[in-house]
Structure formats: C-alpha cells, structure tokens
From TrEMBL:
Name this polypeptide is given: HNH endonuclease
Ranges of residues in domain HNH: 38-82
Gene3D superfamilies: 1.10.30.50
Native source organism of the sequence: Devosia ginsengisoli
Superkingdom per UniProt: Bacteria
GO MF term list: endonuclease activity; nucleic acid binding; zinc ion binding
Pfam family membership, one: HNH
Keywords for the protein's UniProt record, in alphabetical order: Endonuclease, Hydrolase, Nuclease
Keyword Hydrolase belongs to the record: yes
C-alpha cells in the first residue's frame, strides 16, 4: 500500500495563521479535548506552536489552505493526534485492507506432544525409589 501524500502548509499560510491567532491557541471543541464551542486560548510561550490541519486531514488535496490551518499549542495538537488522527488513519487502513482481501496472518501455536523426542514425559510422574521426603530431611544427629 503506497503511503498517502501530505499537503503541507506554505510558509505564507503559516505566517497568516500565526497573525490571525493573535499569539493564542486557536484549538476549539471536543476534537481538541475541550467542551463543545470552547476555545483553548492559551498564549504561546516562545516558539511553542503547531499548525494543524482541521477539519480536513493533511492527506486530502486542498487541505493546505488558511481556512484549514489551526494554530494551536502542543497540548491541544497532541490530544487531537492521539485521539482523533491516529485512530482515523488506522480505520482507513483496516477498511482498505479488508477491501483488498488482506488479513492478518493466522498464527497457530504448535503443540508439544508428550512422548518420543520430548524430555518431558509426564507432569505427575512418580518419584523414583530413594527420592522423597526422606531425601530432604536433615540426617544430622
């Protein structure tokens, strides 16, 4: 399966999105781990900001526009990546594999039979003569 192409934002688009954000996180809503309609609004510290593709994923043509660019803090971007992006990509891969007839290999565990060629004869074998509790008892007077 060929790797999907990513449509990255241009520097001009990132500059415009950064200016639009006013130095604060633009992440909004449940996909970023916030309440519906709530905006993060955390001020960026230093250069700690990331440019996220939302609502269109980076693999869709036309996703590299200013309207699809969200300037967000690393916490919001990480949350969305873990809980939204990665599971969505995994589902696309599973559906694609199923459509192509690709399945996980069926792994069977080989069984070990007791008997010839195997050193283990029985788990309940009788103790040999002379070995038993007396063997472990202290024989010193």
């Amino acid at each position: 399966m060929a790797r999907s192409r990513r449509y990255e934002f241009s520097k001009a688009t990132m500059r415009q999105a950064n200016e639009r954000s006013g130095g604060r996180c633009e992440a909004e809503g449940e996909v970023y781990g916030l309440d519906a309609g709530q905006r993060c609004n955390v001020p960026f510290k230093g250069g700690a900001k990331e440019f996220d593709h939302y609502p269109m994923p980076a693999t869709e043509e036309g996703s590299d526009t200013l309207d699809n660019c969200v300037t967000c803090c690393p916490d919001c971007h990480g949350y969305k990546t873990r809980t939204f992006d990665i599971p969505a990509q995994a589902k696309v891969k599973r559906v694609s594999d199923k459509d192509q007839g690709i399945a996980l290999p069926k792994v069977s565990m080989p069984s070990q039979r007791l008997g010839k060629g195997n050193n283990q004869h029985s788990a309940t074998r009788r103790l040999t003569k002379g070995v038993g509790l007396a063997y472990f008892e202290d024989s010193t007077p």
